[in-house]
């Protein structure tokens, strides 16, 4: 996570939030969040998918140390990673959807392509 954004949180809180968001993205296929968070989630999600493309025990354990649900890890290795077997990177898309109503933060949808 070199050069990563701080997102106004302590490092533990930030890591927990990113783990939860990456897990949810892999589970549901898309999430609505702010643009800066989406960019951080994209970075980690793409690393997880790239790691999952090598289907062995070592890589499963590496992904399990970050993704919080075992069912999502199974889905990642069985369904998501094989879909991107011949693609190098660019597994996600960020679409800006305008400002949030409460505080006018720039919102985006991040989705698996």
Q: Supply the helix-strand structural class.
A: alpha+beta
Mean pLDDT: 92
Helix share, percent: 40-55%
Please give the order of strands in the largest beta sheet: 1-3-2
Strand content: 15-25%
CATH architecture call: Alpha-Beta Complex
Most strands sheet: 3 strands, antiparallel
Order of SSEs, N→C? HEHHHEE
Give me the CATH superfamily: Ribosomal protein L17
Provide the gyration radius in Å. 14 Å
Q: How large is the count of helical segments?
A: 4
Through-space gap between termini: 23 Å
Task: Note the overall shape.
Answer: globular
Q: Which spans of ≥5 residues are poorly predicted at pLDDT below 50?
A: none
Q: Which CATH top level class fits?
A: Alpha Beta
Characteristics of this structure?
about 110 residues, alpha+beta, 50s Ribosomal Protein L17, Chain: A, three-stranded antiparallel β-sheet, 4 helices
Brief write-up:
The protein is an alpha+beta fold. Helices cover 51% and strands 18% of the residues. It has a single domain (11-112), classed as Alpha-Beta Complex (50s Ribosomal Protein L17, Chain: A), CATH 3.90.1030.10.
Structure description:
With 113 residues, the chain is an alpha+beta fold. It has a single domain (11-112), classed as 50s Ribosomal Protein L17, Chain: A (Alpha-Beta Complex). It is 51% helix and 18% strand. It has four helices and three strands. It has helices at residues 11-28, 35-52, 57-64, 70-83; strands spanning 30-34, 92-99, 106-112. The protein has a three-stranded antiparallel β-sheet with strand order 1-3-2. The radius of gyration is 14 Å and the shape is globular.
């Amino acid at each position: 996570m070199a050069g990563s954004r701080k997102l106004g949180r302590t490092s533990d809180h930030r890591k927990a939030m990113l783990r939860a968001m990456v897990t949810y993205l892999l589970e549901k296929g898309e999430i609505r969040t702010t643009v800066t968070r989406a960019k951080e989630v994209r970075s980690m999600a793409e690393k997880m998918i790239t790691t999952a493309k090598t289907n062995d025990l070592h890589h499963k354990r590496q992904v399990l140390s970050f993704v919080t649900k075992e069912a999502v890890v199974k889905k990642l290795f069985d369904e998501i990673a094989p879909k991107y077997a011949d693609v190098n990177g660019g597994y996600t898309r960020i679409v800006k959807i305008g400002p949030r109503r409460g505080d006018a933060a720039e919102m985006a949808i991040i989705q698996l392509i």
